[in-house]
Amino acid sequence: MRTLDDGEAKFEPDYKSLDLETDLKENLLACKSKREFLDEIKKKWAANSPDTELNIRVGPLASGAGVIENKKIIDEIRGHSRKLVGIDMETYGVFYAANNSSKPRPIAFSLKSISDFADPSKNDNFQKYAAYTSATFMFRFITEKLTFD
């Protein structure tokens, strides 16, 4: 991030792409195509939940050193990566550590439920729901769906 002479912030990406392992990606996409897996997780949540259906988005994340709540900066980041599905502070570090580990290298992936997307006027109404859905999906995905041939 650089500040221009007029005081505007300018995002200057330095792309270092780290890809999701292919078999893992295919397993995640298979869960996405089978709605009953996701619908069951949402249905078992007893408290208030959003009106939207639970979904899976598989794609690139931008990563940075801080939380971004500025729509203009978000739009600029999206302009550099048209398939961007989110912005996250920690995921790149997890992938980097896995890719630079000694053998046998762990296979890394990041899974998060999002309760907002850089919304400065957000509230915390669905944070517990997001924590529940991501933890439940992760547990079920690892124990029931994760296979490597």
Mean pLDDT: 82
- Give the biggest beta sheet: 2 strands, antiparallel
| Uncertain residue segments | none
| Helical content (DSSP H or I, runs of 4+) | 25-40%
Q: Tally the helices.
A: 5
Which terms would index this structure?
40% helix; 149 residues; globular; two-stranded antiparallel sheet
Task: Give a written overview of the molecule.
The protein starts with a strand and ends with a helix. By secondary structure, it is mainly α. The protein has one domain. The strands form two sheets. The chain has a two-stranded antiparallel ribbon with strand order 1-2.
Outline of this structure?
The protein is mainly α. It has 5 helices and 4 strands, in the order ββααβαβαα.
Present the secondary structure layout.
Blueprint: E1 2-3, E2 9-10, H1 22-33, H2 35-43, E3 61-63, H3 71-80, E4 86-88, H4 91-99, H5 127-145
Parallel strand pairs: 3-4
Antiparallel strand pairs: 1-2
